[in-house]
Structure formats: structure tokens, C-alpha cells
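[job 0412] stage=complex_fold ligand=nicotinamide-adenine-dinucleotide status=START
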Amino acid sequence: MSVVRIGLAGCGSVAQRGLLPHLACEDIRQWCELTAVMDPVPGRAEATKQKFGAKLAFEDYDEMLKADIDAVVIASPIGIHYEQAMKAIEAGKHVHLNKTMTTTKEEADRLIAAAEAKGVVVVASPGNGLHPSNMRVREIVHSGELGRIYWAEIGTAGGGHEFEPFRKGDDVLANVNPAWYYKKPGGGPMYDMAVYALHRITAILGPAKRVTGMSGIGLPKRYFKGEEIIVEMDDNTHLLLDFGDNIFCLLYGSNSASGPRHPFAQPFVSGSDGSVTATMGQIEVIGRNVLGTPGSESGRRVEEADRRIPWVFGVHKEIPERHVYADIMHMVDCVIHNKKPVVSAEHARHVIEIIELGYKAAQTGVTQTLTTTFELKPWELVHCD
Ligand SMILES: NC(=O)c1ccc[n+]([C@@H]2O[C@H](COP(=O)([O-])OP(=O)(O)OC[C@H]3O[C@@H](n4cnc5c(N)ncnc54)[C@H](O)[C@@H]3O)[C@@H](O)[C@H]2O)c1
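[job 0412] stage=complex_fold status=DONE, emitting C-alpha cells
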């Protein structure tokens, strides 16, 4: 296949702010085309088509699947992802899924089996665990510089999607109600946000073995443009992961406020001889065997994080949601060159099982044993500068 024709489902916040501005760029025409857009809200797909230059607009997902498209990008609410991905696979389309791919391990199993049977590519966001900055933390952790690894901490906190500036407008493109983020299935900060932390820490430490935790609702009511949203999904979840060999990780997903000591999905890993802390721009290593950064005392080294992301070049560096665009282009690349994705459905399944069984552990008070695993393969740093 030379040019992958894409149909995008769900023209809400992430699509309008990030995915469509990227996919509308001329500089990726040699690889893919934004052929169709779809959204059930009357007029939203048509307005999106006109704004971003798609060829076709649909209000019905099944109708879009009948169109001449090769791949589907799913940017709808998380609870719908499984059904839409299965339909796409059954129609022989390749799929990119926004996080999370599904909400249960069983759905993930079925989806992976269906894709294998049909011979289609599935790329499941987020691929952030494989970005160079996180791979560098992994390298430090496995280098022995920190001694024997004991424990880690990572998580995500954030105030809620009703506060996104994008949603302030009143037209059909901007007036997008985020109530689904607080409903079942698929709502809550674990599936939407902590998923980034889980991909990162499992990329560093490998697959987890057991999970336990506590979870609940911190704020039972929220408001979007004066309309009440009853919060039905936990918005405050704290898990403890066991990676085997007495290596533990504290992991949180909360819709409460964050602070400077808790940067979004940035890992801290501690060992017998030292620790590593990542922030958005730097990696700090502290320990008795650490040679200091030139010009500073030994015992502490600060490295600039490598911010490159595959496929993020030129104008794409200025457009939001670069990591999701990179995952979409990874799907395109795998389709064109018949490659197996490294941003894999198997890694996504493992993360989904942690979330699912984390909730179960919190409900039952019983630590849960994880059954899934994944193989980590490097992501080639193609088309980035
Ligand atoms: N908002 C963010 O900051 C952000 C960032 C990265 C990824 N994501 C992910 O992107 C996905 C969408 O999030 P969002 O914030 O854009 O949500 P959103 O609520 O802003 O938009 C969702 C859109 O999907 C549409 N929709 C509803 N039912 C549909 C269906 N059956 N088929 C197709 N479309 C349907 C809605 O009308 C709406 O336009 C989620 O998986 C989320 O985790 C969101």
C-alpha cells in the first residue's frame, strides 16, 4: 500500500485540537490522507470535514466503514473503543486506538485475536513509554548505577476535562460535553490519564505481577456550562504494584489538583545506591556512585531529556497532541511497510489488566494476580529532528 486512507471517528477535543491539525498537514501526504471523519452529533462531522479538508463526513460509524478507507483512527469516548475497533477489524481496516484500547482484558484478548485473524495492524496509544526520554530512564535503571532497585512512584493528577479551554465555545465543533469522562464504562482518570504513567513504568520495570489498591469518588458532582454531571466512576485511585523480586510501585490516578512534586506521568525509581527522577525536561540521578555533571559536585547528575518523538518533525512540533499523532503515523508506517507495531496492543492489554484488576482489588480488598505480559521492542527514531 502506498498511501493509507484514514477515517477518523470522534471529532471532539483531542481530534479538533491535535489529531486533525496534524492529519491536515500537506507534509504527510506521501504516507496518508484524511479521507473521512465521523461523529454522531448532527453537523459536527460535516463542519469538521470543511475545516480540515476531509473528503467525506458521516454521522453513522457503520456507514464510514463502507467507504473507501484503509484505516480507522478511533477518538471517541473510551467505553465505545472496543465495539468500534472490532467492527473496523471485521471490515478489514487497520486501527489506531486512543488510550485506552478497551476497558477489560477480555475485550483486549478478543480484539488482538480478531486482528491477527484478519491480518490488520492495531496500534494502541499511548506509545510514550517508548519515547527516548523514558528509554533513557530505563537504561539508567538497568545499568546498575542505582544498585538493587527497590521501589518506584508515578502517577497523574489533573482537574478534569470540563475545564479544557477548548470546550468554552458554543458552536458545534467546540461545545463538546465531557460528561462521559465521569461515567461507566471507560470514565475515570485511570483509563484516560494514569494509562500514561502505567505505560511508562511498565516500559521501565517490565510487566507487573500483582496489584492492590484503594479507590473512590472524591468529588461526586461536577458542572459543565451550568449542567450538573453526577460522577459515577471513581476519580481517585491509588494502586500498589508488585513487579516481583520485592520491587514495588506506588501509582495514582486522580482528578484532583497536581503540584510541582508530582509532574504528569514522570517516574521516580529508587535503588540501594541511588535514585532517578524524571521531570518534563530533565532526568536527575542521585547516588553514591554517580559521577557529577561536569562543573558540579559528584553524587548528582542532571541530564537534559531527549524530547524527540518519532514522526514529530517540522510544523508537527508546534501542534498539540504530538504523541498521539506519532502513534497514528506509526500505524501508517506499519501498514505501508508491513511491520508489526512496537506501540503494541499487547502492552496496552497489560496496562488495561492492571487498571481492571486494580479496581477489583480496591472493591474486594484482595490483592490480584496479573496474567498478561508483553515484549518491549525499541521504536525506531524515524522522521524526527
Ligand atoms: N482531551 C484530551 O486532552 C485527550 C488527549 C489525548 C487523548 N484523549 C483521548 O481521546 C479520546 C477522546 O477524548 P476527547 O477528550 O476528545 O473526548 P470528547 O468528549 O471531547 O470528544 C468525543 C467525541 O466523540 C463523539 N462521539 C460520541 N459517541 C460517538 C460514537 N459512537 N462514535 C464516534 N464518535 C462519538 C462525541 O460527539 C465527541 O465529539 C479518548 O480516548 C481520550 O482518552 C483525549
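DSSP finds nine helices and 17 strands in the chain.
[job 0412] exit 0
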